[in-house]
Amino acid sequence: MGRTPVLGWFEEDSRHDRYLAIPATESTGVDGLADRIVGELSGKEQPRVLLEEPTAHLNLRYQDMVLRLVRSLAGEVGHAVIT
Questions:
Q1: Contact 57, 63 (CB under 8 A)
Q2: CB 58: neighbour CB atoms within 10 A?
Q3: Full domain range(s) for residue 56
Q4: Gap between the Cα atoms of 30 and 49, Å rounded
Q5: pLDDT tens digits along 38-53
Q6: Is the model's pLDDT at 14 over the cut of 80?
Q7: Residue 33: inside a domain
Q8: How many domains does the chain have?
Q9: Domain for residue 83, yes or no?
């Protein structure tokens, strides 16, 4: 779903799009969920893959993991993050 903004109308993701998503799913620890439909994920799994309210409904361990990842990624590209 993260590649949707760069796709045209009715265009499906390509092999290249999926290749680009692999590092993101691995770094966030959701690579095991990659072949599942978002609607089938549990209430605890969905925030981890959607990053909508990324720490909502997560235990402290996952909240810490998500926020550390966001900080790291923002630092790599030099962007600020507002939460």
A1: no
A2: 19
A3: 4-77
A4: 7
A5: 889 888 788 777 766 7
A6: yes
A7: yes
A8: 1
A9: no
**CA 71 to CA 48: how far, in whole Å?**
15
Place of tokens 């923002």: 74
Full 3-state SS string of the chain:
CCCHHHCCCCCCCCHHHHHHHHHHHHHCCCHHHCCCCHHHCCCCCHHHHHCCCCCCCCCHHHHHHHHHHHHHHHHHHCCCCCC
In the structure encoding, which two tokens stand for residue 33, read together? 């969920």
Global confidence as pTM: 0.57
pLDDT in tens, 52-83: 677 777 889 988 988 888 888 888 878 787 77
Residue 10 forms part of a structural domain: yes
